[in-house]
Amino acid sequence: MMQETTAARAAPKAMGLPGVGSIPLMMALGPLEFYRRMWRQHGDVFRVDLGGRSAVLVVHPDGVERVLGSNRENYVKAEAYDNIRLLTGEGLLTLEGDAWRSRRRLENPAFHRDSIRRFVDEMAKISREALAAWRWRIPNGGVVDIHHEMMRVTLEIVAATLFGQRLGEDASDESGSAFASALSLVSERGNAVIQLPLSIPTPNNRRFSRAVETLDRQVYSVIRTARGATPDSDRVPTLLSMLLGARDADTGKQLTDQELRNEVITLFLAGHETTALLMTWGFVLLSKHPEVVAKMREEVDRVVGDRVPTAEDVAQLHYVRRVIDEILRVRSPVWCTARDAAGPDVLQGFRVEKGDLVMPLFYLTHRHPEFWKNPEAFDPDRFAPEQSKGRHHWSYLPFSMGPRICIGNVFSLTEGALLFATLLQQIEWSMDGDDVAMDPSITLRPKGEVPVRVRWR
Ligand code: HEM
Hints:
By secondary structure, this protein is α+β, with helices and mostly antiparallel strands. 51% of the residues lie in helices and 10% in strands. The protein has 19 helices and 12 strands. The strands form 4 sheets. The protein has a 5-stranded mixed beta sheet, with helices on both faces. A hairpin with a 4-residue loop joins strand 1 (45-49) and strand 2. Helix 8 (146-163) packs across helix 9 and helix 9 (168-191) crosses helix 10. The N and C termini lie far apart (58 Å). The structure holds protoporphyrin IX containing FE. Protoporphyrin IX containing FE (HEM) is lined by residues 92-93, 104, 266-267, 270-271, 274-275, 278, 333-334, 337, 398-400, 404, 406-408, 411-412.
């Protein structure tokens, strides 16, 4: 869609210094506070010099809709995704154009609501086993780092549903730590002003290569085993077995081993930490809202009781779902995204130039006072049907929106509801210590450990 670009104005520019732009101020304030101040000062579209890269930040839902919806052909995942490509290669998260379209078509059935239903028993089983292991390790009144625990459970769940394999505590630590270290290096590279090519053996680059080698070894071995396995009609298919059998609708082609490797790593990357963050921030927010926890508990007791939760139960946990929606609004694990402008455009009257980095800021869109009353308050009832009626479709974006909306959204909402139900059945908790600060890297992480005191029910 072309628009007249000449009549448009230049977007207001955040303060910065020659050469380094706004980076020092952003580092001093932290990105969230920096962007929040710039938004207050300049409005819904503003420009930031990221030290060599000129970025256009977008907060208003209409602007986000243009970037990710109606004019999405102009906003591509090019340079903006090069750091993630180091880990995933070309996969569903990073592909563009026809290659992305055919990959998405191939993977959609595996993530359809009906396919996810088949994973519910496995998810519930792993959640209960995790709690059984806690009973061994954690005495009544003991303290755990809840983020570490949630990372462990979500890694087990993604491994079981992807490969049908249990990692166990040791393997989950090995692959978990290889993954965590590769991920943290990817996000350090994303934040670094100067990036040395991976071929230069700096200590960080060497650690990154070692972590990727460990992951590759495990993933290729799993793919080889899955290719050699005879189909067993009694077993629940895994995401990997669905991808192994899938054929492109036009060409009939199947995925190669390397394409499968990229998809497996993509699904690990996109599906593991994000869901853990939903749970961790849930613990943090809920610890200040016992009245919300009481309503969740009442619903879980009424719908599920002491049983293992089923897919039918999850569909009945309406209040738990509202709470999850509200956690994802105030602590969106993916707090922003980025695209490269392939050509000029106009966003809400402001010019975008070819080559700009364009970044929808979901974290601030979720706080836009035109669409959210009392936006800083934690209030799950804002997602009750009568209060949601008429809300701008693009004002709530934890999973993004448009054709590239998260393919795993039903997966993670189901997993989150099952985990909350299992936890509420068995424990009560309180936060030990002060508020938990946010550390916005690629995802919105907690700064440091998140100590939670557990009491058995
Ligand atoms: C609470 C949990 C999750 C959140 C908040 C989340 C958020 C997002 C967001 C915002 C995007 C859009 C990125 C962009 O285009 O810029 C995305 C894409 C994606 N997510 Fe998720 N996600 C979650 C869980 C999952 C899970 C469980 C999986 C898989 C098992 C997954 C797989 C993917 C994939 C493959 C994409 C790329 C889709 C495409 O471009 O076609 N995500 N996710």
